[in-house]
Amino acid sequence: MKIDDKFLQNEAIFSNKFQGLSDSKTTDKNTDSIPFGDVLKNAVNDVNNNMIASDSATKSFVKGDDVSIDDVMVKNQEASLGLQFLTLTRDKLLEGYNELSKMQL
Predict the structure, then answer these.
(1) How many angstroms separate the CA atoms of 88 and 43, rounded?
(2) Is 53 left (phi over 0), alpha (psi -120 to 50) or beta?
(3) Rounded to the nearest 10 degrees, how much is the dihedral formed by the CA atoms of 1, 69, 75, 87?
(4) What is the pLDDT of residue 29?
(5) pTM, whole model, 2 decimals?
(6) What's the domain range around 23?
(7) Shortest CA distance to 88 belongs to which of 47, 35, 37?
(8) What dihedral do alpha carbons 82, 57, 61, 83 form, nearest 10°?
(9) Is 57 in the same domain as 13?
């Protein structure tokens, strides 16, 4: 029973995250645009927060606190995927900048 409850709880959290994203897309069409720098800054902050949460969950698990291995692994994977995404985004931005700087005006 505990596994089912944890699954339903995680499913609700997952659904709420994507519901917030879809809501923000509809409101962005009606309002002014958000600067790209702010979007990038928010992405870096989110990845940083995921890394901190992953680290604290791992430390709690190692100490023997009441943290399940599933939560630790999920948080570690979220942090890893976020960092990979951010790294790829940085690489693509630098590649685009280099292409623009090579163009002749």
Answers:
(1) 13
(2) alpha
(3) -140
(4) 54
(5) 0.63
(6) 1-32
(7) 47
(8) 20
(9) no
The reported pLDDT for the residue numbered 1 is 43
My answer on whether 40 and 53 are in the same domain is yes
Residues of the chain predicted below pLDDT 70? 1-7, 14, 17-31, 105
Q: Which residues contact 46 (CB under 8 A, 6 or more apart)?
A: 82
Between the CA of residue 48 and those of 18, 54, 63, what are the distances in Å? 20, 10, 23
CA proximity to 46, closest of 81, 14, 74: 81
Domain count, the chain: 2
* 27/72 same-domain check: no
Residue 1 DSSP code: -
CA distance 20 to 6: 21
Tell me: do 17 and 56 sit in the same domain.
no
Co-location of 26 and 58 in the same domain = no
